UniProtKB/TrEMBL annotation:
InterPro entries according to UniProt: AB_hydrolase_fold (IPR029058), Pept_S9A_N (IPR023302), Peptidase_S9_cat (IPR001375), Peptidase_S9A (IPR002470), Serine_Peptidase_S9A (IPR051543)
Organism whose genome encodes this protein: Pseudaminobacter salicylatoxidans
Family note: Belongs to the peptidase S9A family.
Domain of life: Bacteria
Gene Ontology terms for molecular function: serine-type endopeptidase activity
A Pfam match: Peptidase_S9_N
Protein name per the record: Oligopeptidase B
Length: 706
């Protein structure tokens, strides 16, 4: 199906070449497109109008080219958008969660792009809008609300926004009785903050000029930000830092981590001016998370060889490592994902045999019971509660065919109360779809899980097209949850599949370790094995598979396009991390030092350099045939900078030997997450789906039931 004839004949933008050499460990590379990296990138993140005119002209030419190639899908994109929009309840509202005299929630108004945040009296009553995202976003090309935290006296709201897409958030304080923001305004923050005990001020994280969370400050209401007190400073640029608070309002948590090591510092609300207390000094490879538990802290850790994690306790009076005691032992193959502490219970979310489950433990008796479901593949989310002294927690459940359901669960009586089922206004009959869990044999004998959904009328004779999604990095697991958008593909005869490749934690922590650093190629080979298994089982054919992934999943797309281009009929790479080696060699970029544990440090290690060079997509483009490729990016993206896909696209066009097009769509008003509004985001999804339908020859196929 990958035939250049399905696209109009248009000349692709020509990218100027200005070769730049760099040499590391005696190895010299030449980068002919390095000029696309703006020298003033920090300034561009804050003010996109400062972008070099030559670079802007090139990016605008790329957008004109992709619009021309996709012009014949405009009506299809509109149809897809309307279908996906029709599955969203436009005036949807969350079930508010109780906290003191109020219950807090969020909602959308019909036609609204941004959420509104509200509260009602605890036991019901008139709704009060405390923040209207549509009002705040008015006149802005991009707008995203960050963290919200209401004060314990319920008089003020700390909230943040980003209006560039660069993830530099501005903090505001809203006076809830009047609905007006106070004069307190702090820029360049991480997007949230935590109130102190008497609500006279708040703790927050400030980002430095390289977009790193290097300092935590305390701001006293009514004072100038320049007077804010420095609480903690992290000198190592290789670590992320965040500040959070306990639900009992007695502790401030300062968490510091990279992808394999963590460290906590504690600040007692009773002594907010004291020096933060170190819990356990960072030790390479040792991770731990701290959770409140009244007179103890619960500690989720991989210490002492607990690869899939265990839970320990420590007295709040002296929580240092020497005082940790085991509570829930390590069990190989049972990955404990998170823990929450309450007055009478402790709750943990874990995964075993590839499926999630919630386990509730009575703190007095030690008795445990499990909340689980029977479907072949499903997703659970643990929302917990605002309050500490409660027996009721909240969780969500969905599967690829079952819309999301929200439950309140009484941990004492073990009764679950269905609060809400996701509405699909245009209609959804789960019996029209089939969901399956398959296992694909990998190159080394491992079995790679696949979750998939397709319409019951789809023939399984190899003729169906397939959208195959993958990620496979940072231990992130892609859940088999309900996705209303993919139904537009399933209704047009697609098999929609998730490849649970190594690099995630789908089969335990070892699954993650087997897909990072020196073992990174397992991620790519797993994905290719999944594609071949789907073909062998007659779900699809290679020229009908469109591979899709974003960010580190976009790196996966670049790698599989280099390694097995014949296995795919098309590739969609969203905000793709494709220039891995160059980025890991640039320690001025926001995420580079914290990412070294994930990928390796090619500056310090020749071995790491060679490993990354062996798979980095940009460095491995070759003179051979590639399928049609769509790259999507955002100009102000601080995570995967726009120039990575821009350079990759240019090199692909320079070297590849076929006539299949390479499209580059860049949002000039957004960053890593794409468009910020819920409907404008659907327009972007409609575009990528139209590309998938176009390259598989299904652009003219009407959805089932039409």
């Amino acid at each position: 199906m990958s035939d250049s004839a399905i696209f109009p004949q248009m000349k692709a933008p020509e990218t100027q070449e200005h070769p730049v050499e760099d040499t590391w460990h005696g190895i010299t590379r030449v980068d002919e497109f390095a000029w696309l990296r703006a020298t003033n990138w920090q300034e561009v993140f804050r003010d996109p109008s400062t972008l070099d005119p030559a670079i802007r002209a090139h990016l605008e030419a790329e957008n004109a080219y992709q619009r021309g190639l996709m012009a014949d899908t405009e009506e299809l994109q509109k149809s897809l958008f309307q279908e996906m929009k029709g599955r969203i309840k436009e005036d949807d509202s969350s079930v508010p969660m109780k906290d003191g005299p109020f219950a807090y929630g969020s909602s959308f108004k019909k036609g609204g792009e941004q959420p509104r945040f509200f509260r009602i009296p605890r036991d019901g009553g008139e709704q009060e809008i405390i923040l209207d995202g549509d009002v705040e976003a008015e006149g802005k090309a991009y707008f995203r609300i960050g963290g919200l935290d209401h004060s314990s006296d319920h008089k003020r709201l700390l909230w943040a926004f980003d209006d560039k897409g660069s993830e530099f958030f501005t903090l505001h304080v809203r006076d809830l009785p009047t609905g007006k923001d106070l004069s307190d305004r702090i820029e360049d923050t991480g997007g949230g903050g935590v109130w102190n005990a008497d609500n006279s001020g708040f703790f927050y994280t400030r980002l430095d000029e390289n977009h790193r969370p290097s300092k935590i400050f305390f701001h006293t209401l009514g004072t100038a930000p320049a007077e804010d007190r420095l609480v903690f400073e992290e000198a190592d640029p290789g670590f992320f830092m965040n500040v959070g608070g306990s639900r009992r309002k007695d502790w401030i948590f300062i968490s510091i981590n990279d992808h394999e090591t963590s460290e906590y510092h504690l600040l007692s609300m009773a002594k907010p001016d004291a020096r933060p207390l170190l819990v356990a000094a960072r030790e390479t490879g040792i991770q731990y998370d701290l959770e409140e538990g009244g007179d103890v802290f619960f500690i989720l850790t991989n210490a002492d060889g607990a690869k899939d994690f265990k839970i320990m306790t420590a007295p709040v009076s002296d929580p240092v490592r020497a005082n940790w005691k085991e509570l829930v032992p390590h069990e190989p193959g049972r990955l404990i994902l998170s823990v929450m502490g309450f007055e009478n219970f402790m709750v943990r979310l874990e995964r075993k045999d590839g499926l999630p489950r919630i386990v509730v433990r009575d703190r007095k008796t030690g008795e445990e019971h499990m909340i689980a479901f029977e479907e072949e593949a499903y997703s659970l989310g643990l929302a917990g509660a605002y309050e500490y002294d409660t027996d009721v927690i909240r969780f969500s459940y969905s599967s690829m065919t079952t819309p999301s359901q929200l439950f309140d669960y009484d941990m004492r009586t073990r009764e679950r109360t269905l609060l809400k089922t996701q509405e699909v206004p245009s209609g959804h009959d789960p019996d029209n779809y089939v969901t399956r869990r398959l296992m694909a044999p990998a190159h080394d004998g491992e079995l790679v899980p696949i979750s998939l959904i397709y319409h019951r009328d789809t023939p399984l004779d190899g003729s169906a097209p397939c959208l195959l999604y993958g990620y496979g990095s940072y231990g992130i697991t892609i859940p088999a949850s309900f996705n209303t958008n993919c139904l537009s593909l399933a209704d047009r005869g697609f098999v929609y599949a998730l490849a649970h490749v190594r690099g995630g934690k789908d089969k335990g922590y070892g699954w993650y370790e087997d897909g990072k650093r020196a073992k990174k190629t397992n991620t790519f080979l797993d994905f290719i094995s999944v594609a071949r298994h789907l073909v062998a089982e007659r779900y699809t054919a290679h020229d009908r598979i469109v591979a899709q992934g974003g960010s580190a999943g976009g790196m996966l797309m670049g790698a599989i396009a280099n390694m097995a281009p014949e296995a795919f009929g098309g590739v969609v790479a969203e905000v793709p991390f494709v220039d891995v080696l160059t980025t890991m060699l640039d320690d001025t970029l926001p995420l580079t030092p914290p990412e070294w544990p994930e990928w390796g440090n090619p500056i310090a290690s020749e071995d790491d350099y060679k490993i990354i060079a062996s798979y980095s997509p940009y460095d491995n483009v070759e003179a051979k045939d590639y399928p049609p490729i769509l790259a999507v990016a955002g100009l102000t993206d601080p995570r995967v900078t726009y120039w990575e896909p821009a350079k990759w696209v240019a090199r692909l066009r320079k070297l590849k030997t076929d006539k299949n097009p390479v499209l580059f769509k860049i949002n000039m008003d957004a960053g890593h997450a794409g468009a910020s509004g819920r409907f404008s985001r659907l327009e972007e999804i409609a575009y990528t789906y139209a590309f998938a339908l176009k390259v598989t020859g299904r652009a003219g196929v009407a959805p089932a039931g039409r």
